[in-house]
Amino acid sequence: MEQDIINKTLAFYTEYITPYLIADYEGESFHLFDTIHFAVLGVILLIILLITITRKKHSEKNKENFRDTVAAILLVNEVSWHLWAYFYHEWTIQKMLPLHICSILIWLSAWMLIKKSHRIYEFAYFLGIGGALQAILTPDAGIYGFPHYRFFQTFIGHGFIIIAAIYMTLVEEMRPTWKSLLRVFAITNIYMVAVYFINSSIGSNYLYLNHKPPTASLLDMLPDWPIYLLYMEAIGIVTCLILYIPFIIKDWWDNRGLKEAGSDRLDNIHY
Fold first, then answer.
1. Helix (H, G, I), strand (E, B) or coil at 25
2. What are the boundaries of each domain within the chain?
3. Of 18, 151, 157, 214, which one has the fewest beta carbons inside 10 Å?
4. What is the pTM of this model?
5. Rounded to whole angstroms, how far apart are CA atoms 184 and 176?
């Protein structure tokens, strides 16, 4: 009896699970901006909208539970990817070290959520939202379309990087400053130099610093190496400035309100 259950379980796994886990996936490849892609983007947007709507209604315990849950999702999702890559012989130091911006920010975002680290938040806000947004809009999913494991893993990882940063902004009321932007710019450029030399040493291409990726990407629209690195730098700066615009507007509005309040108080003084 027990052997029959085991055999049926193995048969079910082999027929219905394994085809969506194997590295040599034979199903439908990923198609940019098809119905499935829009549906996943819609789910991520819906979560962000729910966070926005309910941002003032969470108790401290609920906030802690949410942060811990998102941190767990990020970590479990990332660890599962490394296990999958190892099991299917896809794990190499040239591909799987956590050196891409989004890869390292998954670990940092989890730490930010657990410890409420504002210093990490600065990087999660500018680099996390900017990098992960590009990754979910133009994911490097290749042959792994829905419902393959890698399809879900890609969108869960990048989607929750964005969700984590937005949550800390709206609910925990963290915010970057101009000094944050300068710190992110300086440290990121130092990091890029270090990664360039790591790439040169081990034959990798983390951050696409040494050459363009072999698959089609937005970098194909830019000039050849090394000129496209300057474009990447410019795009990164513009992206960070765009992400800072809401805080520029907020600061302007708050200062305007303070000036008006000051004028009102002066008008009420009777000489």
1. coil
2. 2-267
3. 214
4. 0.91
5. 10
159-166: average pLDDT: 98
Using alpha carbons, select from 108, 153, 160 the residue that is nearest to residue 132: 160
Where helices occur in the chain by DSSP H, the ranges are: 2-12, 35-53, 60-87, 93-96, 101-115, 118-123, 129-137, 149-170, 178-202, 227-267
Identity of residue 72: A
CB 240 within 8 Å of CB 184: yes
**For residue 270, what pLDDT is reported?**
45
Give the single-character DSSP code of 29. Answer: P
In a 13 Å sphere around the CA of 259, the CA atoms on its Cβ side amount to 6
Q: Record the tokens describing residue 143, joined without a space.
A: 């042959």
**Residue 22 in tokens:** 């194997």
Q: Sign of dihedral through CA atoms 214, 215, 218, 220? A: positive
For range 219-247, the mean pLDDT:
92
Q: Tell me what the mean pLDDT of segment 2-6 comes to.
A: 70
Mean pLDDT, rounded, for 138-144: 86
SS3 121: helix
Both tokens of 132, joined, read: 């992960």
Q: Given pLDDT bands bounded at 50, 70 and 90, which one contains residue 177? A: very high
Q: Count the residues in the chain.
A: 271
175 three-class SS: coil
In the numeric block, which tokens belong to residue 6? 């085991």
